[in-house]
Amino acid sequence: MRPQAWVSVPPILIGIDQGIGSPGSVACVILQGTWDRAWETAHIAPGLSADMLQSMSPEQIAHLIRARRTHKRFSGAAVSPEHLSWLVELLRWAPNHRVTQPWRAYVLDQPATHALGKWIADHRDVVLRHSDKPEKDRAKIEKLLSYYFPSLGAIIQVTQVRAPSEHQDREDYAAVSAGVQNMLLGAESLGLGHFWSTAATLCNPAVLQHLGIDPERERMVASLWLGGVVAQPPVPPRQDPDHYTTWISPSL
Ligand SMILES: Cc1cc2nc3c(=O)[nH]c(=O)nc-3n(C[C@H](O)[C@H](O)[C@H](O)COP(=O)(O)O)c2cc1C
Fold first, then answer.
1. For the whole model, what pTM was predicted?
2. Residue from 104, 118, 209, 101 nearest 156 by CA
Protein backbone atom coordinates (compact mmCIF):
# COMPACT_ATOMS: atom_id res chain seq x y z
CA MET A 1 0.00 0.00 0.00
CA ARG A 2 2.57 2.49 1.11
CA PRO A 3 5.07 3.44 -1.62
CA GLN A 4 8.39 1.88 -0.77
CA ALA A 5 10.51 4.96 -1.33
CA TRP A 6 9.82 8.64 -1.20
CA VAL A 7 11.98 11.20 -2.90
CA SER A 8 11.18 14.71 -1.81
CA VAL A 9 11.30 17.15 -4.69
CA PRO A 10 9.57 20.28 -3.43
CA PRO A 11 6.88 21.19 -4.01
CA ILE A 12 5.91 17.60 -4.91
CA LEU A 13 6.82 14.17 -3.66
CA ILE A 14 7.66 11.33 -5.98
CA GLY A 15 6.83 7.85 -4.68
CA ILE A 16 8.37 4.82 -6.33
CA ASP A 17 6.07 1.87 -5.97
CA GLN A 18 8.07 -1.28 -6.61
CA GLY A 19 4.95 -3.47 -6.50
CA ILE A 20 4.07 -2.63 -10.07
CA GLY A 21 6.09 -3.13 -13.23
CA SER A 22 9.82 -3.50 -13.32
CA PRO A 23 11.67 -2.02 -10.33
CA GLY A 24 11.77 1.72 -10.44
CA SER A 25 9.76 1.88 -13.64
CA VAL A 26 6.73 3.40 -12.03
CA ALA A 27 7.16 6.79 -10.52
CA CYS A 28 3.92 8.22 -9.30
CA VAL A 29 3.69 11.87 -8.67
CA ILE A 30 1.60 12.44 -5.60
CA LEU A 31 0.36 15.90 -4.86
CA GLN A 32 2.37 17.00 -1.86
CA GLY A 33 1.43 15.25 1.36
CA THR A 34 2.15 11.75 2.54
CA TRP A 35 0.40 8.62 1.47
CA ASP A 36 -0.79 8.10 5.01
CA ARG A 37 -2.34 11.53 5.13
CA ALA A 38 -4.16 10.98 1.81
CA TRP A 39 -5.46 7.65 3.09
CA GLU A 40 -6.63 9.24 6.33
CA THR A 41 -8.27 12.06 4.41
CA ALA A 42 -10.23 9.59 2.33
CA HIS A 43 -11.33 7.29 5.11
CA ILE A 44 -11.53 9.29 8.28
CA ALA A 45 -11.81 12.96 7.49
CA PRO A 46 -13.15 13.61 3.99
CA GLY A 47 -12.28 17.13 2.88
CA LEU A 48 -8.81 18.43 2.45
CA SER A 49 -6.83 19.43 5.48
CA ALA A 50 -5.57 23.01 5.37
CA ASP A 51 -1.94 22.11 4.69
CA MET A 52 -2.87 19.67 1.91
CA LEU A 53 -5.07 22.27 0.25
CA GLN A 54 -2.26 24.81 0.38
CA SER A 55 0.20 22.34 -1.12
CA MET A 56 -1.92 21.45 -4.18
CA SER A 57 -1.44 24.12 -6.78
CA PRO A 58 -4.04 24.44 -9.54
CA GLU A 59 -1.27 23.69 -12.04
CA GLN A 60 -0.43 20.40 -10.27
CA ILE A 61 -4.06 19.35 -10.49
CA ALA A 62 -4.21 20.43 -14.15
CA HIS A 63 -1.02 18.46 -14.78
CA LEU A 64 -2.58 15.27 -13.41
CA ILE A 65 -5.70 15.80 -15.54
CA ARG A 66 -3.64 16.40 -18.68
CA ALA A 67 -1.18 13.57 -18.00
CA ARG A 68 -3.91 10.91 -17.70
CA ARG A 69 -3.63 8.58 -20.69
CA THR A 70 -5.45 5.50 -21.84
CA HIS A 71 -3.11 2.50 -21.79
CA LYS A 72 -3.62 -0.35 -24.21
CA ARG A 73 -0.63 -2.44 -23.13
CA PHE A 74 0.01 -3.80 -19.64
CA SER A 75 3.06 -5.41 -18.07
CA GLY A 76 1.43 -8.44 -16.43
CA ALA A 77 1.97 -7.13 -12.88
CA ALA A 78 -0.89 -7.54 -10.41
CA VAL A 79 -2.67 -4.55 -8.86
CA SER A 80 -2.79 -4.84 -5.08
CA PRO A 81 -6.10 -5.14 -3.19
CA GLU A 82 -5.15 -1.97 -1.29
CA HIS A 83 -4.83 0.01 -4.50
CA LEU A 84 -8.10 -1.45 -5.79
CA SER A 85 -9.92 -0.47 -2.57
CA TRP A 86 -8.40 3.00 -2.75
CA LEU A 87 -9.63 3.46 -6.33
CA VAL A 88 -13.13 2.21 -5.59
CA GLU A 89 -13.37 4.63 -2.67
CA LEU A 90 -12.84 7.54 -5.08
CA LEU A 91 -16.06 6.66 -6.93
CA ARG A 92 -18.26 7.95 -4.13
CA TRP A 93 -16.86 11.50 -4.28
CA ALA A 94 -18.32 12.22 -7.72
CA PRO A 95 -21.07 14.82 -7.87
CA ASN A 96 -24.49 13.14 -8.05
CA HIS A 97 -27.85 14.88 -8.23
CA ARG A 98 -30.03 14.24 -5.15
CA VAL A 99 -27.18 12.13 -3.80
CA THR A 100 -28.57 9.05 -5.53
CA GLN A 101 -25.12 7.40 -5.34
CA PRO A 102 -25.97 5.31 -8.41
CA TRP A 103 -22.57 3.59 -8.83
CA ARG A 104 -21.74 -0.03 -8.23
CA ALA A 105 -18.24 -1.53 -8.54
CA TYR A 106 -17.35 -5.18 -9.17
CA VAL A 107 -13.69 -5.71 -8.42
CA LEU A 108 -11.70 -8.50 -10.02
CA ASP A 109 -8.16 -8.77 -8.71
CA GLN A 110 -5.65 -10.53 -10.94
CA PRO A 111 -6.63 -14.12 -9.98
CA ALA A 112 -10.31 -13.22 -10.51
CA THR A 113 -9.45 -11.53 -13.83
CA HIS A 114 -7.66 -14.66 -15.02
CA ALA A 115 -10.59 -16.80 -13.83
CA LEU A 116 -12.98 -14.60 -15.81
CA GLY A 117 -10.79 -15.02 -18.88
CA LYS A 118 -10.99 -18.78 -18.47
CA TRP A 119 -14.76 -18.62 -18.00
CA ILE A 120 -15.13 -16.58 -21.21
CA ALA A 121 -12.87 -19.02 -23.08
CA ASP A 122 -15.01 -21.93 -21.87
CA HIS A 123 -18.30 -20.14 -22.65
CA ARG A 124 -17.56 -18.45 -25.99
CA ASP A 125 -20.75 -19.79 -27.52
CA VAL A 126 -22.92 -18.63 -24.59
CA VAL A 127 -21.39 -15.14 -24.85
CA LEU A 128 -21.82 -15.03 -28.64
CA ARG A 129 -25.47 -16.09 -28.34
CA HIS A 130 -26.10 -12.65 -26.79
CA SER A 131 -24.25 -10.81 -29.56
CA ASP A 132 -25.88 -9.08 -32.53
CA LYS A 133 -22.56 -9.22 -34.46
CA PRO A 134 -21.25 -12.71 -33.62
CA GLU A 135 -18.49 -12.85 -36.27
CA LYS A 136 -17.00 -9.51 -35.24
CA ASP A 137 -17.37 -10.32 -31.55
CA ARG A 138 -15.75 -13.74 -31.95
CA ALA A 139 -12.60 -12.03 -33.23
CA LYS A 140 -12.78 -9.52 -30.37
CA ILE A 141 -13.05 -12.33 -27.80
CA GLU A 142 -9.93 -13.97 -29.22
CA LYS A 143 -7.96 -10.71 -29.01
CA LEU A 144 -9.23 -10.09 -25.48
CA LEU A 145 -8.21 -13.56 -24.33
CA SER A 146 -4.85 -13.76 -26.06
CA TYR A 147 -3.66 -10.16 -25.79
CA TYR A 148 -5.33 -8.36 -22.89
CA PHE A 149 -6.29 -10.88 -20.22
CA PRO A 150 -2.82 -12.37 -19.69
CA SER A 151 -1.33 -8.91 -19.11
CA LEU A 152 -4.04 -7.26 -16.99
CA GLY A 153 -3.43 -6.63 -13.30
CA ALA A 154 -7.13 -6.22 -12.40
CA ILE A 155 -10.51 -5.21 -13.76
CA ILE A 156 -13.17 -3.07 -12.09
CA GLN A 157 -16.59 -3.27 -13.70
CA VAL A 158 -18.42 -0.01 -12.92
CA THR A 159 -22.18 0.10 -13.39
CA GLN A 160 -25.06 2.50 -12.89
CA VAL A 161 -28.22 1.46 -11.10
CA ARG A 162 -31.06 2.22 -13.55
CA ALA A 163 -33.32 5.04 -12.41
CA PRO A 164 -37.12 5.15 -12.56
CA SER A 165 -37.26 8.21 -14.86
CA GLU A 166 -35.36 8.97 -18.07
CA HIS A 167 -34.22 12.30 -16.62
CA GLN A 168 -32.71 10.76 -13.49
CA ASP A 169 -31.29 7.87 -15.50
CA ARG A 170 -29.35 10.34 -17.66
CA GLU A 171 -28.16 12.29 -14.64
CA ASP A 172 -27.10 9.13 -12.83
CA TYR A 173 -25.16 7.93 -15.88
CA ALA A 174 -23.35 11.28 -15.92
CA ALA A 175 -22.61 10.95 -12.18
CA VAL A 176 -21.10 7.48 -12.57
CA SER A 177 -19.00 8.72 -15.50
CA ALA A 178 -17.65 11.48 -13.25
CA GLY A 179 -16.85 8.78 -10.68
CA VAL A 180 -14.96 6.77 -13.29
CA GLN A 181 -12.87 9.84 -14.09
CA ASN A 182 -12.06 10.09 -10.36
CA MET A 183 -10.77 6.54 -10.54
CA LEU A 184 -8.74 7.19 -13.70
CA LEU A 185 -7.04 10.17 -12.09
CA GLY A 186 -6.43 8.09 -8.98
CA ALA A 187 -4.91 5.30 -11.07
CA GLU A 188 -2.74 7.84 -12.91
CA SER A 189 -1.50 9.23 -9.59
CA LEU A 190 -0.55 5.70 -8.49
CA GLY A 191 1.44 5.17 -11.67
CA LEU A 192 -0.92 2.43 -12.82
CA GLY A 193 -1.82 1.80 -16.43
CA HIS A 194 -5.56 2.13 -16.96
CA PHE A 195 -8.07 1.79 -19.79
CA TRP A 196 -11.74 2.81 -19.69
CA SER A 197 -13.13 0.13 -21.96
CA THR A 198 -16.64 -0.59 -23.13
CA ALA A 199 -15.51 -3.78 -24.86
CA ALA A 200 -18.58 -5.69 -26.02
CA THR A 201 -17.47 -8.93 -24.35
CA LEU A 202 -17.20 -7.40 -20.89
CA CYS A 203 -20.57 -5.66 -21.31
CA ASN A 204 -22.16 -8.88 -22.62
CA PRO A 205 -25.26 -9.91 -20.58
CA ALA A 206 -23.93 -13.47 -20.11
CA VAL A 207 -20.67 -12.14 -18.68
CA LEU A 208 -22.50 -9.64 -16.48
CA GLN A 209 -24.78 -12.36 -15.13
CA HIS A 210 -21.76 -14.56 -14.45
CA LEU A 211 -20.36 -11.71 -12.32
CA GLY A 212 -23.65 -11.30 -10.43
CA ILE A 213 -24.65 -8.12 -12.29
CA ASP A 214 -28.32 -7.96 -13.29
CA PRO A 215 -28.33 -6.23 -16.72
CA GLU A 216 -32.00 -5.27 -16.21
CA ARG A 217 -31.20 -3.42 -13.02
CA GLU A 218 -27.76 -1.98 -13.80
CA ARG A 219 -26.02 -0.78 -16.93
CA MET A 220 -22.35 -0.89 -17.63
CA VAL A 221 -20.53 2.42 -17.60
CA ALA A 222 -16.93 1.26 -17.62
CA SER A 223 -14.90 -1.87 -17.69
CA LEU A 224 -11.85 -0.35 -16.06
CA TRP A 225 -8.72 -2.30 -16.97
CA LEU A 226 -5.72 -1.80 -14.75
CA GLY A 227 -2.13 -2.97 -14.68
CA GLY A 228 1.53 -2.17 -14.79
CA VAL A 229 2.76 0.42 -17.27
CA VAL A 230 4.76 -0.75 -20.29
CA ALA A 231 5.23 2.56 -22.08
CA GLN A 232 3.72 6.01 -21.97
CA PRO A 233 1.04 6.13 -24.70
CA PRO A 234 1.11 8.88 -27.32
CA VAL A 235 -1.04 11.92 -26.62
CA PRO A 236 -4.11 12.00 -28.87
CA PRO A 237 -4.49 15.53 -30.26
CA ARG A 238 -7.00 17.85 -28.64
CA GLN A 239 -8.85 20.74 -30.22
CA ASP A 240 -7.98 24.21 -29.04
CA PRO A 241 -10.48 25.48 -26.40
CA ASP A 242 -11.51 28.22 -28.86
CA HIS A 243 -12.97 25.48 -31.05
CA TYR A 244 -15.52 24.37 -28.45
CA THR A 245 -15.94 27.47 -26.29
CA THR A 246 -18.41 30.29 -26.73
CA TRP A 247 -18.11 33.26 -24.40
CA ILE A 248 -21.55 34.71 -23.81
CA SER A 249 -21.71 38.47 -24.02
CA PRO A 250 -23.40 40.21 -21.08
CA SER A 251 -25.32 42.31 -23.61
CA LEU A 252 -27.05 39.23 -25.05
C1 LIG B 1 -16.98 5.79 -22.41
C2 LIG B 1 -15.64 5.44 -23.00
C3 LIG B 1 -15.47 4.20 -23.60
C4 LIG B 1 -14.26 3.85 -24.18
N5 LIG B 1 -14.16 2.63 -24.78
C6 LIG B 1 -13.05 2.33 -25.44
C7 LIG B 1 -12.96 1.09 -26.12
O8 LIG B 1 -13.86 0.24 -26.05
N9 LIG B 1 -11.86 0.85 -26.86
C10 LIG B 1 -10.83 1.76 -26.94
O11 LIG B 1 -9.86 1.50 -27.64
N12 LIG B 1 -10.84 2.91 -26.23
C13 LIG B 1 -11.93 3.22 -25.48
N14 LIG B 1 -11.98 4.38 -24.76
C15 LIG B 1 -10.76 5.20 -24.59
C16 LIG B 1 -10.59 6.24 -25.69
O17 LIG B 1 -10.18 5.59 -26.87
C18 LIG B 1 -9.53 7.26 -25.24
O19 LIG B 1 -10.00 7.95 -24.11
C20 LIG B 1 -9.22 8.25 -26.34
O21 LIG B 1 -8.48 7.63 -27.36
C22 LIG B 1 -8.43 9.45 -25.84
O23 LIG B 1 -7.18 9.03 -25.28
P24 LIG B 1 -6.75 9.44 -23.79
O25 LIG B 1 -7.74 8.78 -22.87
O26 LIG B 1 -5.37 8.91 -23.63
O27 LIG B 1 -6.82 10.93 -23.69
C28 LIG B 1 -13.17 4.75 -24.15
C29 LIG B 1 -13.32 5.98 -23.48
C30 LIG B 1 -14.54 6.32 -22.91
C31 LIG B 1 -14.68 7.63 -22.20
1. 0.83
2. 104
Q: What is the pLDDT of residues 143-199, one digit of tens each?
A: 999 999 999 999 999 999 999 999 999 999 999 999 999 999 999 999 999 999 999
Say how far apart CA 194 and CA 187 lie, in whole Å: 7
Give yes or no for residue 69 CB within 6 A of ligand 1: yes
CB atoms closer than 10 angstroms to residue 173: 16
SS3 105: strand
Please indicate whether residue 198, judged by its CB atom, sits closer than 6 Å to ligand 1: yes
How far away, in angstroms, is 28 Cα from ligand 1 center? 22
Judge if the beta carbon of residue 173 lies within 6 A of ligand 1: no
Question: Is 250 touching ligand 1 by the criterion CB < 6 Å?
Answer: no
Domains in the chain (CATH in brackets) are 1-67 (no CATH), 70-233 (3.40.109.10)
Backbone angles phi and psi of 233, in degrees to 5: -65, 155
pLDDT of residue 56: 84
Tell me if 39 CB under 6 Å of ligand 1. no
How far, in Å, from the CA of 223 to the mean position of ligand 1? 11
Span 78-132, pLDDT tens digits: 999 999 999 999 999 999 999 999 999 999 999 999 999 999 999 999 999 999 8
197 CA distance to ligand 1 centroid (A)? 6
